[in-house]
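Chapter summary example: a protein plus adenosine-5'-diphosphate.
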Amino acid sequence: MTTLLGCIADDFTGATDLAGLLARSGVKVSLRIGVPAEPPKDTAAFEVIALKSRTAPVDAAVAECRAALAWLQAAGAKRFFWKYCSTFDSTAQGNIGPVAEALMRDIDTAQTIYCPAFPENGRSIFMGNLFVGQQPLNESPMKDHPLTPMRDSNLMRLLSPQVTQPVGLVDRLTVARGAGAIKAALAQLADQNIAHVVVDAVADADLVQIASACRDMPLMTGGSAVAMPLPDLYVQDGLLSREAAQAQVHKVDPGAVILSGSCSAMTRSQVAQYCRTAPGFRLDPLALAQEGAGPALAWLAAQTLETTPILYATAEPDEVRRAQHALGTARAGDIVEDALAQIALAALERGRRRFVVAGGETSGAVTKALGVDRLDIGAEIAPGVPWTYCQSGGHSIALALKSGNFGAVDFFAEALACLEAT
Ligand SMILES: Nc1ncnc2c1ncn2[C@@H]1O[C@H](COP(=O)(O)OP(=O)(O)O)[C@@H](O)[C@H]1O
Ligand SMILES: O=C(O)[C@@H](O)C(=O)COP(=O)(O)O
């Protein structure tokens, strides 16, 4: 069917997060890995294109997102959603702002909103400041992220250097007055030529009002949660019928592996918890730089298919800094991503069909290595982390791509149990 909402996500965990939240309403959501080479065919009402552009050079990220936009326009979409991290992961150069401005130019629209709030996962925005739980972003563990350390909590200050046009705010006091007040505030800001508007939200009810106010905007931007109300609003508006829904039921053989390249605080606890009861192999970037992934691959080969081993580069911030100092930040990340990608392929060759991957960049590397081009969305393990199903090397496989900070401490065991139960 004609695509109603065309979504572009800057990383793969973000894409499954968004697809999972849209799918909660029961509508069909299609998730493509990278910009499809073929013109649109068999498209869904909600199309999500997953890119690995979060930490790419600005020009490359902009070019890739514009290509994704062109594909979604060819699929018939007139409304678009630019999905980035609920912790606004970006550098002073981008890529959130430059991509938004390029998309606005191509779509020919003068204003967009920025709302990374995700209350279910503890991300809220008040007076333009982003909080992670009770901590301002810059005091949260995101201050130590290996690739995009977040050292400011103010979204207007973070966004301004990334864009050429003025940045404004619709604050919580306005949002609390509902969709009409939000619309009026946006119109007033548009009269002042404010192109980029951060919108406060501290609870799901705020997001419903924001989505309601902005549902006809050609471009919305944010985390997944502000897009979640859109399917129901489109149904209310008569744009979509519930019949579009289709349950995704897939059978996937057993044999699982857990791969973690996330160094986020939550992933560190999850890895430590899982290692208490399961075989684990720690990947050290310095050792990988010298001897490659050989020892990890040999270790994996010695594990029986009945156990679910974990291979992880997950490390404390001081260890990450040591590796980055010795190897350079980008190279340290690439070495780890490359090793985990090789390990994923070896696991597939050895009969493992269920993959739990922690980390957005890591998920991008693993998914690319597995040659996956389209994912179906399955059961949600934790808010923002669904199981997904796809084909790799002629096999049906299941992939759970976990954002660094998502999931509870038992996430890995829960993910495996969730798949058994479906
Ligand atoms: N021990 C380590 N030292 C340096 N970099 C690491 C280490 N472990 C993982 N990395 C890199 O850190 C980055 C983590 O990013 P990502 O996978 O997106 O996780 P998250 O979802 O937590 O942001 C990846 O590029 C990964 O390769
Ligand atoms: O919005 C979010 O927090 C996630 O969907 C997301 O983008 C996570 O990125 P990583 O933490 O890098 O996995």
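Key point: The first strand starts at residue 5 and ends at 9.
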